[in-house]
Amino acid sequence: METTILIERNEAMQLVAWKELMALSIQRRRDIVKEILFYDETPEEEVKQVDSLSEIFNHKIVDYLIKKLLCATNEYIEDELKTLYNKNYMVVGEPILYDKCECCGYRTIEAHIGWDICPNCYWEDDGIKELNKHSPVNRMTLQQGRDNFIEFEACSSEFVKYVKAGRKRYLR
């Protein structure tokens, strides 16, 4: 019987985030750096001159990726660690219980009407809960987003490349 290694949730998230950093495409890395600089209120002229491939951004990108893992299930993190190290892990600690996304129903929204984008389906939380009311930011109704999620596992076919399959990754 194989031994299971216990690991604290914060340490496990760090390892998974570093793994994800190393696997990022150049374009995805650039997009994340732009988002980080946007939230840091860096002037747009400076953002254009930034070398997003520089190692100076590695820790900020890892912090960004860890934030995306705060609501991930322990099962997902354990699977990622097993893939990385070929050993069994048991994560000690619980995920943060976020609010449910109005589109996919998974707990990925930090705070409603915070304009969070659900990493599971890419629906932007704009506070609209009525199924047939048009959401300008999502360019569709909530019902259309839900129907698309059933078909594509994203609120729109254009976002399939951005979402992470959530059946194991996020709580319902």
TrEMBL record:
Top-rank lineage group of the source organism: Bacteria
Pfam families per the UniProt record, alphabetical: Cys_rich_CPCC
Q: Which residues form the Cysteine-rich CPCC domain?
A: 100-166
Q: What InterPro entries does UniProt report for this protein, alphabetically?
A: Cys_rich_CPCC (IPR025983)
**Identification of the protein by name:** Cysteine-rich CPCC domain-containing protein
Supply the source organism for this entry. Chitinophaga silvatica
